Every structure is written in structure tokens, then in C-alpha cells.
Amino acid sequence: MPVGPSQEPLVTLLLIAVTCAVSIPAFSNRKLLGDMLFWPPAIGRGQWHRFVTHGFVHADGAHLLFNMVTLYFFGRAMEPFFTRYIGAPGYALFYVSAIVVAMLPSWLRHARDPNYRSLGASGAVSAVLFAYILLAPWSLLFVFFVPLPAIVFAALYVGYSVYASRQGADGINHSAHLRGGGYGVLFALVMEPGLAGHFLRTIASPLGS
């Protein structure tokens, strides 16, 4: 099942543009940042928009750059795949829904914790990335310039995220990464159930053919 950009990834580019347009001012505007990040007490007061808006603000430039570069490269491949089934608006809705779904376990765990905060598009970006890995598990990903097969990266990433989430010492919401990735895989399978067989056949081939 081929994967690759067959058209301009307009929705992906729009998502990147909106995220940058919001995140960059929020670096220096603490009120804007505070009004948009995920904060359980505010959710408890009915500010449900934070389930979405936290995905459009970032901690710093490096955080924003990493997420947007990842979204661009994998969104280029996945946007055409999803738009075949649900159109461009559906792909945008998939991305936004991934922001929400990735945060739900954290909300359930920290609903009464006034010290908990979270922000960033990592959950949605993980959904796009892991949907791509489902389609092309033997494609090469360059992780800090080191080439790794996508399926190997996925295994290492999941293992590390589970470990780091249990440690809870680095201030990163690894739970959102895992849930976002899982959501991306499930969403892609709902769109095309035959991907399960394609994935299994592909990883069974030593050449990834």
C-alpha cells in the first residue's frame, strides 16, 4: 500500500500556520498562554475549550519546531490518505480530535490537581506519525540523523514512553504521546480495516516489500 504525498498538504500547512501564529505570541504573552494551556481547575469551571487550545501553544521554540517539523513530514504523507475517506475537513477534525483524545487519560488522572498543566501538539502529532508507521512500517525515519526503520522506532518510542511515564520526572506528558499514537492507529484502521493485514504482511517481509 503506497504512502506518499500526491497533492499539496494544504490542511497540514494550515495547521502548522495556525499553531505557529498562536504559539509564538504566547511565548511572551503569559496571559494568552495561561488562557489556552490545559489546567484542570479551569476545566472544572467549564473552560472546555482548553481540551483543544492546549494543542496550539508550546513551551518554547524548540518544542514548537520539533512538533511542526514532524507534523509537516508525516502530514504530507497522511493527509492524502485520510482525505480519500473523509475529505480535507475530516482530516482536520481527525487532528483536532487527537488533541482531545490524547489528553483524556491525563484529565481523568489529574482532574483534582491544581498543579498540573500540559500544552503542545505532541498528542496529535503522534497520531499522525503512528498512522504513518501503520502504513509504512519499514520506511526509514531519521531520529537525530540516525536512520531507523519506522517499526523499530515505534517499539523504542513506546517502550521509552511507558518507562518515562511511570518515572514522571521529566515534566513531559508521555501519556498523551502514547494515547495519541494509539488513536492514530485506530482511526486509520477504522478508515481502512485492510491496513491490519497490510501491516502484518509488511513486517513479516525482511525487505519490507
Automatic annotation (TrEMBL):
EC number(s) from the headed UniProt entry: 3.4.21.-
Instruction: Provide the GO MF annotations for this entry.
Output: peptidase activity
Sequence ranges assigned to domain Peptidase S54 rhomboid in this UniProt record:
45-191
Stretches assigned to coiled coil: none
Q: Which controlled-vocabulary keywords does the entry list?
A: Cell inner membrane, Cell membrane, Hydrolase, Membrane, Protease, Transmembrane, Transmembrane helix
Transmembrane stretches, start-end: 12-30, 51-74, 86-104, 116-135, 141-160, 181-200
Provide the top EC class: hydrolase
Can you cite a GO biological process for this protein?
Answer: proteolysis
The compartments listed are: Membrane
What broad class describes the main subcellular location of this protein? membrane
Protein's membrane topology: Multi-pass membrane protein
| Cross-referenced Pfam families | Rhomboid
Name listed for the protein in its UniProt record:
Rhomboid family intramembrane serine protease
- Organism encoding this protein: Spectribacter acetivorans
